[in-house]
Amino acid sequence: MIIPALPIFKSALYDKVDFTLPIHPSCPWGIVRTRNRAGCTFLGRKNMDFWPAVKSCLSKYATFRGRASRSEYWYFSLFCFLISIAASILDVAIFGADRQFNPISLVSSLIFLIPSISAASRRFHDLGRSYWWSLIGIIPLVGIIITLVWFCTKGTNGANRFGEDPLAGSEVAPPVPNPTS
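RE: above sequence
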């Protein structure tokens, strides 16, 4: 299946690159092939998209080793948030709004508890920190802000003590001239 590479936002690169070439189908997150107006092809892996990130986190249900990129962690967090909203709506629709016990929300929260902790652990590993740093969240307000800032920053480049870079090869390679026919 060939999926077109689409720009998410307009940038300086947008004016210089033709985004009509396909993403390579054999790579799990896709190799982006773009050609600029000078006729040079660029290869590079893009960040994880929504569904591959969700599948990755669910396939690593209780895997606390390795690293998780920002896109993998935040897309999975968004997925969990959307599931919790849907579960709350179902609870209200089935059991009524005046109920104290919400069984569907409880079950969905329990199902996603371990994968959420696992993804957070791998996100800390991507930053070069052990999961013990999550205890900083105990500090009221300041700890949560620090953790949020860390989770929004880019992980360490290259391999660290927790494993290989999850975005290895994601930087756009130097241009390769296209052979003229």
